TrEMBL record:
Organism: [Mycobacterium] wendilense
Family stated for the protein in its record: Belongs to the UPF0311 family.
Annotated protein name in UniProt: UPF0311 protein MU0050_001219
Pfam families: DUF3237 (PF11578)
Top-rank taxon, per record: Bacteria
Length: 156
């Protein structure tokens, strides 16, 4: 790579996502604890992408023995103009023991109280939203037992 060329990525705000969690199921796993968060619905709002998340998606989280949560989200967004967009999202969350205790009581842990980052990817066959298929994103996360919030940025 040519060191004279600036390859620093840029970030442009794409949307804010708020998901409601309708249930959480926990089970021991060989590498930690498996938590399944069932998405009850939600909302996406941004300058070029807005809509409602359909109920029935989920986040299959593995909380490793190292305390790091490994996110694996699948959800469907119906845009305000009727298009369907499939969303996948992987990421990592690390919290201090005090934040974990607050999380367990149901508190929302804000972005500045933990390390929570993810990479939502969007897929749509609708011509109006096919630009999303080639857009890589980065999100800053906030989490609780009943809600997840993402501030999503397109990486340029």
């Amino acid at each position: 790579m040519n060191p004279e060329i600036d390859t620093t990525p840029t970030l442009e705000h794409l949307a804010d996502i708020r998901l409601a969690i309708s249930a959480v199921h926990a089970a021991p796993a060989p590498a930690g604890t498996r938590l399944t968060y069932v998405i009850g619905g939600g909302r996406c709002d941004g300058p070029a992408l807005s809509g409602e998340f359909l109920a029935g998606g989920g986040d299959w989280v593995l909380v490793g023995t190292d305390g790091v949560s490994r996110l694996d989200v699948r959800a469907t967004l119906r845009t305000d103009d009727g298009a369907l967009v499939h969303v996948t999202n992987i990421g990592r969350v690390r919290m201090s023991p005090a934040a974990v205790d607050r999380f367990r009581t149901g508190e929302l842990i804000r972005h500045d109280e933990m390390y929570g980052r993810s990479s939502p990817l969007f897929d749509s066959g609708d011509p109006r939203y096919q630009w999303l298929n080639g857009t890589y994103t980065l999100a800053v996360n906030e989490v609780s037992l009943t809600a997840v919030h993402y501030r999503v940025f397109a990486v340029g």
